[in-house]
Specification:
Layout (H helix, E strand, L loop, with lengths): L1 E8 L3 E10 L2 E11 L6 H12 L8 E6 L3 E2 L3 E3 L6 E3 L10 E5 H8 L3 H4 L2 E4 L10 E6 L3 E8 L11 E5 L12 H14 L6 H4 L2 H12 L5 H8 L5 H21 L5 E4 L1 H5 L2 H4 L1 H7 L6 H5 L3 E4 L4 H14 L7
Parallel strand pairs: 1-4, 4-8, 10-13, 13-14
Antiparallel strand pairs: 1-2, 2-3, 5-6, 6-7, 9-14, 10-11, 11-12
Helix pairs in contact: 2-13, 4-6, 6-7, 6-8, 8-11
Length: about 325
């Protein structure tokens, strides 16, 4: 039986988990949340694993940490919204067992973990193409996107090796498609003093707050907008749902993810009407040539806040060579 320690570190919370691999099955043994501020450096993080999960990191088969920030060589990285810097390079001199990955790479691997298997089907067929490209998208503090492809050429080996492909597509210019939407575009550009507005600015918490201000004149925080305007049919709900669906549609067409698109938690999990209302599906399938293809792609939602933790563990499972069940 192999053991993997996993972590998913955001700007506020740090999720820690101890996973066991038994006959190809990934099982969560124990888990806890701590404040990210309590782990200011690598040594503090390793100490937190031992203190909170009663497991020494140097004695397990793999340690995988996902961090919301840039990562270099799967071993060095920093938290974008915080002071945490992690350097695992000195720990991998004998046998590589410490891995650092970006948080949305972890979300991608969550797609082929037990967490992805129990995701709710929102639209499309219930049986995806098993070998097809898969993708993940999620709006929260920003807009994250990644894709996932099978790298095992011989499916009969009963393994399910997947390669997550990172993306910074959230920083590409967001497409506005009408005169009224262009007014919103101009409003956002002036608010933020930028030459163009990106998906990360529109389909995110700050984008939601700015959109609500444009539509109503009210200046509220993202959580306040969620409580006031996303639980019923409001213009804010309709517009933001349309923008979210457009981001999903464009990512489906970019990745050709006929194996399915997974929405990772965040704003959608807290406000499920966003992806279940008529406006969302109408925009998702609105395309002059590709509507039939878009309708053939399953769309799922992972609503568990611990999906990134599961993704980290799933990455670790591949590293230690414990063959998982085919997904």
């Amino acid at each position: 039986m192999s053991v993997v320690l996993a972590a998913d570190i955001g700007g506020t919370n740090c999720r820690l988990g101890l996973f066991r691999l038994d006959n190809g099955l990934l099982q969560l043994d124990r888990m806890t949340w701590i404040e990210t501020g309590s782990v200011p450096h690598t040594e503090a993080l390793l100490a937190a694993f031992e203190r909170e999960l009663e497991q020494t990191p140097h004695e397990v088969d793999a340690v995988v940490v996902a961090i919301a920030g840039p990562v270099e060589d799967c071993s060095r990285g920093r938290l974008t919204n915080g002071g945490l810097n992690i350097d695992f390079a000195p720990l991998n001199t004998l046998r590589r067992r410490f891995f650092l990955i970006n948080d949305f790479m972890a979300q991608a691997y969550a797609v082929v973990s037990p967490e992805g298997e129990k995701a709710e089907l929102i639209a499309g067929p219930s049986v995806p193409e098993s070998d097809g490209m898969r993708a993940v998208i999620g709006a929260g503090t920003g807009l994250g996107q990644a894709s996932l492809m099978r790298i095992d050429a011989n499916y009969n080996l009963h393994t399910s090796q997947w390669l997550a492909i990172p993306s910074e597509n959230g920083h590409a210019a967001f497409p506005f498609t009408s005169d009224e939407e262009n007014e919103c575009n101009n409003f956002m550009r002036k608010e933020w003093g930028v030459p163009f507005v990106t998906g990360d600015m529109v389909v995110s918490g700050r984008g939601l707050a700015c959109l609500h201000q444009f539509l109503t004149g009210e200046k509220l925080t993202p959580p306040e907008v969620g409580r006031k305007a996303l639980g019923c049919e409001t213009r804010t709900l309709q517009w933001f749902s349309r923008f979210y669906a457009r981001a999903c549609r464009n990512w489906i067409l970019t990745t050709l993810c006929n194996g399915g698109l997974w929405i990772a938690g965040g704003i959608a999990a807290q406000n499920p009407m966003l992806v279940k209302c008529h406006e969302f599906k109408s925009e998702l399938y609105r395309h002059p040539q590709w509507e039939n293809y878009l309708r053939s792609v399953p769309l799922y939602m992972m609503s568990d806040d611990n999906s990134g933790l599961w993704g980290s563990a799933r990455f670790g499972q591949q590293q230690v060579g414990s063959a998982p069940r085919p997904n």
